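Box S1 | Example of a co-folding query
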Amino acid sequence: MAKSPGNGGPRNPGADPLDRTPLAALQEGLVVSHLGQGLAIENAAGEIVLCHTRRRLGNVAVGDRVLWEPMDGSQGRVEELLPRRSLLTRPGHNAKIRPVAANLDRVLVVVAPTPEPDWLLVDQYLAACEHRGLAAAVVVNKIDRVENRAGVLSVLEDYRAIGYPCVTTSAKSGEGLEELRALLAGQCAMLAGQSGVGKSSLTNALLPDKQLRTQALSEKAGLGRHTTTAATLYHLPGGGDIIDSPGVAVFGLAEMTALDLASGYREFRHWLARCQFNDCRHTGDKGCAVREAAETGRIGMERYRRFVKLLDKLQLAGRL
Ligand code: GDP
Ligand code: ZN
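Box S1 (continued) | Returned holo structure for guanosine-5'-diphosphate
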């Protein structure tokens, strides 16, 4: 970094004239929310500081680690974005890619008996996680409402067989929440899924003081009693973090190619190199090892069918 090491030291003549923050004044912080024009940064003492960013930093996301400098009053300015270990994105306006959350470890894909499970969407999320190098898990919530438990468990078995942790929960009765907490411990996770499956109910059940924390953030941002609906990172009482991102139901196939989608089906990977042609699309192609594996029961036929549908979806969207 081309910065002078001490307070008031000589400026590096080659440095950006705006880049004059002495290194010693910079503190590390964690972006916990976007608030209007600013960012809520948690400092090393666990306090929230409202910060502005430099334009050149580009898109800073919740979960990012940054270096920031205290400014007048109780506010600060973000000077540097520290390297990320992961970044989840979604398509935004004007075909722009928007960041959703940084430094995530795991996405919990939530389904429920109502609204009716959309397994195509589940597979889409899982493929996007594979592409981003994120761990995932499948959560069936509202298990208290499920009449045919055996049916649900057999669908989950397909996912468990290919290595995805699966948890059944009820935000209402508390069933399965211990298992969910154990899965989240020491990680940064986000819940994804259709609206109405119980993502906010689960988040509230995991975070008893969520309301208070949200209120504190809103007051910090000068929003008064109006609570923010922005993506927010919360620390879980038992360790680990959860990023609550209301309204971000869709993320995923942005930036993914047909190749990425095929390897996003993790059970396909073993077969991909065995197809007769190396430009195989794994649909009706001659000598396709993936299709043959599905037809002979080596990989799940349901997942394979959904892969073909998702590939169609990418094509219809003009992305391939
Ligand atoms: P979100 O849109 O995914 O955040 O879903 P919400 O958390 O808003 O929940 C949608 C509806 O499902 C609400 O009426 C909740 O009370 C209800 N709900 C959430 N979790 C459960 C559950 O485990 N069992 C039952 N019976 N209802 C639930
Ligand atoms: Zn193939």
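The chain has a mean pLDDT of 86. The CA atoms of residues 64 and 102 lie 5 Å apart.
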